[in-house]
Design goal:
Blueprint (H helix, E strand, L loop, with lengths): L29 E6 L7 H10 L3 E8 L18 E5 L2 E4 L3 H10 L7 E8 L6 H4 L1 H11 L4 E6 L8 H17 L5 E7 L7 E3 L7 E9 L5 E9 L9 H6 L3 E7 L5 H8 L2 H4 L9
Parallel strand pairs: 1-2, 1-5, 2-4, 5-6, 6-7, 8-11
Antiparallel strand pairs: 3-4, 7-11, 9-10
Helix pairs in contact: 1-5, 2-4
Amino acid sequence: MASPAGFGAGPRRRGRRSQQTFRRAPSVTARILLTNDDGIHAEGLKALEQSLASLGELMVVAPDSERSGTSQAITIHAPLRLQQIDERHFSVSGTPADAVIIALHLLRFQPQLVVSGINLGANLGENIVYSGTVAAALEATLHGVPAIAVSLAVRHNPDFSTAAAFAGRLAGKVLAEGLPPGVMLNVNVPPGPARGIRFTRQSGKVSQNIIHEKRDPRGRPYYWQDENVIREHVEPDSDYAAVLKHEISITPLQADRTDYRSLNHLSSWVADLTAGGGRDVI
């Protein structure tokens, strides 16, 4: 598909910078890319677009249907199809990460900010690893674009108004102040009125995996995955704890997954792992 007129060159990957350096938007009308993992027609995405409309020029590029739980997968074994709904809305037959890549490198949209959401359901603790909503924001971060993921911690009868309003305020703050390179913000909003805002850390695994076995009409078994949060295992400074206290949780996440605390210690294994103590690895 030809690039729509008016779009400049796509953003380039940036090298590592000092953690004291923040990316700030130029003093022009902001360009914001919106995406999600619930699909182009999701109500949460519509609420997000309405809330951010006053901040600048918006483009919406999202999966053509729900892609929850796809993490940061990209499509490499099947073709991608792009459908233009109108001048500023596009659907992609792929994952949330695909949608971000298509927006940046095919449509050539140059955003100062990417916002993913509003997800129907929380993205807390270990579920961050599986989340397509969070993954879209991480994908943007890999390409040097500040990003926010926003989720509403409810599954039924959602009211996106609080989450949308807060997303607008936070987006304005990020556009004004920037984020450290390689860092995105994972936001989880409790149902109902929020009692506060807290910066948190990602929780450890506090859920129990549940496998439901069912039978199809021919008697063959099939399975549904589910989980149950064990509340007594929730750490008080974690994202789960904040949402359970009806506070908005903001967790800074980084694209660089290196564990620097253990890097030097584990490097001492090299001598033992080298065959015969020499230079030969095997």
